[in-house]
Fold this protein.
Amino acid sequence: MNRMIQGVRRFLREDEGAAIAEYGLLLAIVAVGLIAILTAFRNDIATWWNGMREDITATPTDADPNALPGTP
């Protein structure tokens, strides 16, 4: 129990709070940049995403329905 209390006291005395604040600031800057990029390219991303969705859900017309996947 005494070792745990000493560990907590040592943690509170250290100057790691400044490093944590810097990491938080860096994370906030990255988040704002990501939001700005997503906002700027919103229409392009939506077009790409809808195209991918259509490609995935499209019914193949040239494929043999009796063929197993992976066979020539």
